[in-house]
Specification:
It is a single chain. By secondary structure, the protein is an alpha+beta fold. It has one domain: Alpha-Beta Complex (Aspartate Aminotransferase, domain 1), CATH 3.90.1150. Helices cover about 35% and strands about 25% of the residues. The protein contains four helices and nine strands. The strands form two sheets. The protein has a six-stranded antiparallel beta sheet. A three-stranded antiparallel beta sheet has the order 4-3-9, covered by helices on one side. The longest helix has 18 residues. It is globular. The two termini are about 20 Å apart.
Length: about 140
């Protein structure tokens, strides 16, 4: 896997986010994820801010390491990685506010359009589920 933790500065990365609103939103999610995980942020690759890590192994034999929680202030949307997926989170998603989802990606255009307490709960549930399922490295 090409996306790995690095020694790059999270602060420098976030300072380079060109869109002021996206930068503010990223800083708010940074604080939320620090509180939820109790971990310090680490750059994964050149655009993902991750917290903690876990080791996965699929039935196919594919395996690797990935952040327990993470986000990326992408140009089109703030992407929050919900590694547990969304199958068990319909009720939370219905209360979250304006968003879109991919397999494990939660896309938020404006953080002001979502309920931050629901977002916190969603991240907490994901962290708990992934921690119970995989070997977690704190």
């Amino acid at each position: 896997m090409k996306t790995r933790p690095s020694d790059a500065s999270v602060d420098d990365f976030l300072a380079r986010v060109g869109n002021e609103r996206r930068r503010r939103d990223a800083l708010a999610v940074l604080a939320l994820m620090k509180r939820v995980t109790g971990e310090e942020p680490v750059m994964w690759g050149d655009s993902i801010v991750g917290f903690g890590s876990y080791h996965y192994r699929y039935a196919s034999g594919r395996e690797g390491d990935w952040p327990l929680a993470g986000f990326s202030p992408r140009k089109r949307a703030l992407t929050v990685y919900i590694m547990s997926g969304f199958a068990k989170h319909d009720q939370l998603l219905s209360r979250l506010g304006k968003h879109a989802t991919g397999k494990s990606c939660l896309y938020i255009n404006r953080l002001e359009d979502v309920d931050m307490e629901v977002l916190r709960e969603l991240v907490e549930c994901s962290v708990a589920e992934v921690s119970a399922r995989y070997a977690v490295d704190a």
